[in-house]
């Protein structure tokens, strides 16, 4: 017995042993491709996160084609990533389907939610819950060619839509073939519809864009294209985007987003251009608001770690790293001020627009709304049918498709 007690005593001395290391958790993050610059930037921020949280590894996956279809399929099959991109357009449907984790319970006072621009945060709220935290945004601004303006004797950018139409006529056929480059899709027309009190969808997600108020805003685009002949689509001048037709000097003005700035400065270094807020329509300021949020999969097995990743990427430190090059605009007021974007000569109009912009959301059935509008509006723009007829056709077709999906 004495020997046994001695053995137990020695055994309980707890000789030094290997200290157990915490298990590493892998969080899967998915997003669309974007540009190589964007991917490189995000990978750098993820690397900083992993250095700060050594027990969390991030598996970053790029879904290069049919992004939302892939995400929706995986959500149904319970194989979706822990964290993924969600743009404002697709947010309403997913937020209402009980597939996203509400982030309210994770948000602490230290996270400083009040630092986010309200208009952006509201795009990812549903039934008083926050389902996404916006990582960046862009509005639209007027880009104009300074040499073309000087040649036409124009000293300042237009401030009203009537002035813009007048400027376009003065600029057409001078240094540029056309005064204004236009993008006819709904994504660039929604604020014009709103300017006269029109709506795209009602509270039940039904299409209502064929109203008289909506048509007044859209008629501005038709008249300039058909009567003035001072505007052009990208297909009219053989380019792939509004930014490209502006950069190539095919048009003197375009209405584009923050993404155009690095593209133009890198691709067309000799181009002298400036920006201004979008001219007022019907006495009202207007522009579009585009944003992408990080959201959490409700079925995630690593919610605590997923939240740490989201809170870092959208926190002050992570956001400053992500938006510090000017590739994207920060959704936090403090970061925007620190980086000086509200005073940046090219980005100032884009930042100013966030306070009155129309978020790019068109209800729970965006594909039906957008596809039918785009097809019929382009037809009206080309003079193939009257605008009112085109919009009624689009509205009816959209609502028929929505009824079939409900």
TrEMBL record:
Keywords annotated in UniProt: Signal, Transport
Keyword Transport listed? yes
Q: Which GO terms describe its molecular function?
A: maltose binding
GO CC terms, sorted: ATP-binding cassette (ABC) transporter complex, substrate-binding subunit-containing
Pfam families in the record, alphabetically? SBP_bac_1 (PF01547)
Against SUPFAM superfamilies, the record matches this protein to:
Periplasmic binding protein-like II
The name under which this protein is listed is ABC transporter substrate-binding protein
Which organism was this protein described from?
Answer: Amazonocrinis nigriterrae CENA67
């Amino acid at each position: 017995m004495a020997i046994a007690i001695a053995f137990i005593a020695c055994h309980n001395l707890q000789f030094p042993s290997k200290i157990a290391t915490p298990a590493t958790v892998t969080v899967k993050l998915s997003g669309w491709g974007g540009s190589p610059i964007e991917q490189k930037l995000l990978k750098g921020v993820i690397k900083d996160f992993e250095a700060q949280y050594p027990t969390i590894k991030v598996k970053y996956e790029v879904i290069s084609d049919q992004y939302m279809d892939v995400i929706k399929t995986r959500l149904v099959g319970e194989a979706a990533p822990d964290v993924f991109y969600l743009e404002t357009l697709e947010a309403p449907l997913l937020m209402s389907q009980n597939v996203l984790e509400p982030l309210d319970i994770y948000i602490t006072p230290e996270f400083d939610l009040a630092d986010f621009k309200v208009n952006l945060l509201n795009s990812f709220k549903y039934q008083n819950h926050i389902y996404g935290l916006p990582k960046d945004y862009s509005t639209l601004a007027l880009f104009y060619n300074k040499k073309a303006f000087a040649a036409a004797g124009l000293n300042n950018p237009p401030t009203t839509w009537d002035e813009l139409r007048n400027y376009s006529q003065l600029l057409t056929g001078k240094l540029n073939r056309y005064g204004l480059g236009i993008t006819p899709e709904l994504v660039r027309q929604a604020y014009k519809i709103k300017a006269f009190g029109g709506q795209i969808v009602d509270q039940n997600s039904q299409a209502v864009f064929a109203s008289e108020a909506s048509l007044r805003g859209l008629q501005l685009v038709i008249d300039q294209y058909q009567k003035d002949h001072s505007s052009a689509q990208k297909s009219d001048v053989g380019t792939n985007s509004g930014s490209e037709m502006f950069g190539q000097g095919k048009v003197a003005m375009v209405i584009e987003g923050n993404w155009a700035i690095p593209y133009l400065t890198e691709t067309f270094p000799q181009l002298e251009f400036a920006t201004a807020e979008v001219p007022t329509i019907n006495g009202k300021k207007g522009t579009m608001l585009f944003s992408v949020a990080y959201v959490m999969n409700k079925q995630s097995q690593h919610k605590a770690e997923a939240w740490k990743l989201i809170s870092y990427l959208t926190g002050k430190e992570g956001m400053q790293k992500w938006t510090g090059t000017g590739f994207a605009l920060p959704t936090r007021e403090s970061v925007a001020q620190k980086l000086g974007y509200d005073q940046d000569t090219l980005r100032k109009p884009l930042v100013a627009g966030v306070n009155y912009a129309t978020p790019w959301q068109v209800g729970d059935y965006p594909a039906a709304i957008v596809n039918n509008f785009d097809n019929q509006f382009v037809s009206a723009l080309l003079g193939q049918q009257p605008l009112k007829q085109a919009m009624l056709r689009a509205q009816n077709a959209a609502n028929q498709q929505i009824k079939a999906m409900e």
